[in-house]
Amino acid sequence: MTISDQHAQPQVSSEVAEAGQKTVGSPKIKAEVEGLNFFYGKLQALKNINMGFNANQVTAIIGPSGCGKSTLLRCFNRIHDLYPETRYEGKIILQPSGINLIGPETDPLEMRMRMSMVFQKPNAFPKSVFDNVAFGLRLRGVAGKELKDQVEQSLRSAALWDEVKDRLRESAYTLSGGQQQRLCIARALATEPEILLFDEPTSALDPIATAKIENLIFDLKREVTVVIVTHNMQQAARVSDFTAFMYLGELIELAPTKVMFENPAIKLTEEYITGHFG
What we know:
Elements: H1 3-6, E1 11-12, H2 14-23, E2 29-40, E3 43-54, E4 58-62, H3 69-76, E5 86-94, E6 99-100, H4 108-114, E7 115-118, H5 129-139, H6 144-157, H7 161-164, H8 177-190, E8 195-199, H9 207-220, E9 225-229, H10 233-239, E10 242-247, E11 250-256, H11 257-262, H12 267-273
Parallel strand pairs: 1-11, 4-9, 4-10, 7-8, 8-9
Antiparallel strand pairs: 2-3, 2-5, 5-6, 10-11
Helix pairs in contact: 5-6, 5-8, 6-8, 8-9
C-alpha cells in the first residue's frame, strides 16, 4: 500500500476525544482551531485543520518538510499578514476570551504581542542585552523601575539572568548562540504572551545549548501554553505533552505524545515516525 493510499481523515486518540468533551470552551483549552484553511495566492497550504491546544501544556507539531507545520504556527501571530495575496478561512479561537485570532476584526499587531514567536536561528536585535528584552515592554509604555524589574524577571524565566546580569549593557551579539536564543525567549516572554510559539528553536544550536532550551521549554509550561514545530522527533518526545502529525497541509493525527510514538492510530503516522519517509 502506498503513502497516498493510507492518507486518511484526521484522527484523534480516545484520550484526546475524552479530554475534549470535558474541556472544549473552558479555560483548560487555550486555543481551538476550527476549519482552518490557508492560501498563498492560489496555493492551499492548510486544509481544514481542526484541533485544540491545552493550556499550560506543550504541543509539538511534526511532519516532513513542506507539510504546513510552520504555516500553521504563523497563523497564530498573523505573520502571514505581512505578505501579499495570503488568505485565511476558518477560525482560531483564543480561550477564555473567545477572540478569533485570524478574524478581520482582530488587530494583527496585538496578536503578535499575545502570541510571541521564537524562530529557528537566534534573531537578537543590534542592541544591548537589556534593550532586547525591553523592546516590547517599551512599546507598551512600561518604563522606570517596572521596566527593569520585568526585564530581570523575563531573563530569569529564560534561565539567563545569572549569565548576563553583569552584561546587560553589552551588545547581544557578544553572547553565544545558545545564549542569544534564550535572550530571544526572554524577549518573547517579556510581553506576557498567552501562547509561546517555537519554530525549530534548536536547529542551529549544539547539543549542550539544545538541552538547555529543551529543559527551559519543559519549565515554561507552568507560565504559558507552548506550541513547538520540530523535525526532531526525539525532541518532540522529550518536551511535549501532545503531538500533532501533519502531511500535505492536513492534520493526520493528534494524540498524547506517549500514545503517538508508541501506538499511533494511523498507518501513515507510524510510517513517518519509523522513518519510512520524510
